[in-house]
Design a protein that fits this description.
Elements (H helix, E strand, L loop, with lengths): L1 E6 L3 H10 L7 E7 L2 H10 L5 E5 L7 H11 L4 E6 L4 H8 L5 E4 L5 H21 L9 H13 L6 H11 L8 E8 L2 H8 L5 H18 L3 E4 L4 E7 L6 H23 L3 E9 L5 H12 L2 H4 L4 E3 L5 H13 L2 H4 L4 H15 L7 H12 L10 H17 L3 H18 L8 H13 L6 H8 L3 H12 L3 H19 L4 H7 L5 H12 L3 H9 L7 H4 L1
Parallel strand pairs: 1-2, 1-3, 3-4, 4-5, 9-10
Antiparallel strand pairs: 6-8, 6-9, 7-8
Helix pairs in contact: 2-3, 6-7, 16-17, 16-18, 17-18, 17-22, 22-25, 23-24
Length: 542
């Protein structure tokens, strides 16, 4: 086991970090925690020397920078991770020069971010055991390359001269002339994770980076680093080519080869978004943002594409969306007249909103159509709950306009085929449904209902699955979430108040469950119906 020491003056942050992480999953154990740098230094010098130190920068008595300097005077092997705030970037830059492994922003840290940082520290410790370290610099060149590129491109933690120095030191295939950034996004990443049996994505990241680096060695052009789960960031430089046409052709050749290799050996597809071209390393952050905008066009034009930002055409995109929505007119004409009018009013409002090229607004349109009460009025409550929830979850997994439209088309087909057909439930399940609908806001259980019906819990569980195609807890949650929708639209209650009234004791869990059920968070759902397509809920619903 590797020993970890946590140094943080805020007690709740320190204890929360200490107790919330499954340290043994990383081959680590917390050997100590300290409230300031002096306490940490005393432990470091008088007790078992920790392998990893996770420290805040701003602390009383002795701050993080002074602590790191003292440690680096003694050894270069202890791995150091910074806990910081957004305003600490100047201090982070100082710490980077002292050989830290990574940093975590306190206000935005997530379980996934903590996992990724600890996994990389674990890799460094493994590399350190076999190779040793020198002057606090990570000897694993791939990890060092990734840290340097991401810290410069994303956070400006290096000056241009420092970045150039690192490029020369690592002999990276980069030059400041004619730079292009390409963002590769793995299509349907959740399916890839299932295929690899890799919930955290770490095996996928390491495997793909090895393959992608090998392909770039063959072409002798550019560098690649991972960028959050399903994305990989390529930086290309074309100092030796002046023709933009030739540069584009070479880019197409490299990206097409990568797509072929991923398809042939892993049976997966990937989409590329390609920035414009600029010179100077200072332009990399801008080019990165351009590549993000380019790959986002996947929603409109489909997966496994090469999408160049320069080819973008807003008018063509909007026309594509109009044509896609027009395809539903025939099915809309087959539903009840009142429902047809409601749907067409919603769509018409959207078509005149000026938001046809905004992916998030199109997604919200489909969510709103999915939850249009008049469309499902002919179905029983249990059918509506089951159908809307199932297609809401499917809609969230859609990565393109075509996929979202196909899911909505299937939804309409089911509505039309099931309209007016009331499903007959057995006496026991019918009584169970009434019990849940009457007391959904209480802390009820399957055992409680089974006792009420004088049945065994196991038998009742089988009946639920057979007749409602879901288990008891799923049905209870869906009833609660449907009731929550009614309260959000019919009252001014806050989200946490709605959660309490429908039986959720944890507001954050309610918010996550609501998004899984509907595709948007509670306040975003309310705004869908109140504010139309103003885009005000977009940031909240991501």
């Amino acid at each position: 086991m590797f020993n970890v020491m946590i140094v943080e003056d805020e007690m709740l942050v320190r204890l929360g970090f200490k107790n919330s992480v499954q340290w043994d999953n990383y081959g680590m154990t917390v050997c100590a925690d300290a409230a300031n740098g002096r306490e940490a230094w005393e432990y470091y010098t008088n007790s078992v020397r920790p392998d990893v130190i996770i420290t805040d920068l701003r602390m009383p008595i002795m701050g993080g920078i002074e602590l790191i300097k003292k440690i680096r005077e003694q050894d270069a092997q202890t791995r150091i991770v910074i806990l910081s705030c957004m305003e600490d970037f100047d201090l982070i830059r100082q710490a980077m020069q002292l050989g830290i492994s990574s940093y975590i922003l306190k206000l935005t840290m997530t379980e996934e971010e903590i996992h990724n940082v600890l996994m990389r520290v674990r890799e460094e410790l493994g590399t350190q055991m076999t190779l040793g370290t020198s002057k606090g610099i990570i000897r694993n060149p791939d990890l060092l390359k990734e840290n340097i590129i991401k810290n410069f491109v994303f956070y400006h933690l290096y000056s241009k001269d420092e970045f150039v120095h690192h490029i020369d030191q690592l002999k990276l295939r980069l030059n400041p002339e004619r730079l292009i950034v390409a963002m590769m996004e793995i299509d349907h990443f959740e399916l890839v994770q299932t295929k690899f049996n890799d919930e955290k994505g770490e095996l996928i990241r390491v495997t793909f980076l090895n393959v992608l680096n090998e392909l770039l060695v063959q072409s002798q052009r550019g560098e690649v680093v991972s960028d959050e789960d399903k994305r990989y960031l390529f930086i290309f430089s074309f100092r030796d080519i002046a023709s933009e046409y030739q540069i584009r052709e070479e880019m197409i050749g490299i990206m097409t080869q990568i797509q072929k290799v991923l398809g042939r050996f892993f049976n997966i597809s990937a989409t590329f978004g390609v920035s414009g071209m600029k010179s100077g390393y200072a332009s990399l952050h801008t080019l990165y943002k351009e590549s993000e905008r380019a790959v986002a066009q996947k929603f409109f034009y489909g997966t496994e594409r090469l999408l160049f930002l320069s080819d973008g055409d807003t008018d063509a995109t909007e026309e594509l969306v109009r044509r896609k929505l027009q395809q539903f007119h025939e099915k809309w004409s087959m539903i009840e007249e009142a429902a047809q009018k409601d749907v067409e009013a919603i769509v018409q409002s959207f078509l005149t909103s000026g938001r046809l090229s905004h992916e998030q607004d199109i997604r919200k349109l489909f969510v709103r159509l999915l939850h249009c009460p008049s469309v499902t009025a002919s179905l029983s409550e249990s059918e509506v709950t089951s159908l809307v929830s199932a297609y809401g979850e499917e809609m969230q997994k859609c990565e393109t306009l075509d996929e979202a439209a196909t899911a909505y088309s299937k939804f309409l087909t089911e509505i039309i085929s099931r309209g007016g057909i009331k499903k007959q439930l057995s006496k026991d399940i019918a009584r169970s449904v009434r019990f849940i609908q009457d007391r959904f806001h209480e802390d009820i259980s399957l055992q409680q209902i089974a006792q009420y019906l004088e049945l065994t819990p196991n038998y009742l569980s089988v009946l639920f699955k057979k007749e409602l195609q879901m288990n008891f807890s799923e049905y209870l949650n869906r009833i609660r979430l449907e009731k929550a929708k009614e309260l959000l639209l019919g009252t001014n209650l806050r989200s946490y108040e709605v959660a309490q009234q429908v039986g959720f004791t944890d507001d954050s869990y309610f918010s996550r469950a609501f998004k899984k059920h509907t595709g948007v968070r509670p306040n975003g759902f309310r705004r869908l119906w109140i504010n139309d397509w103003t885009g005000t809920a977009e940031a909240e619903d991501k």
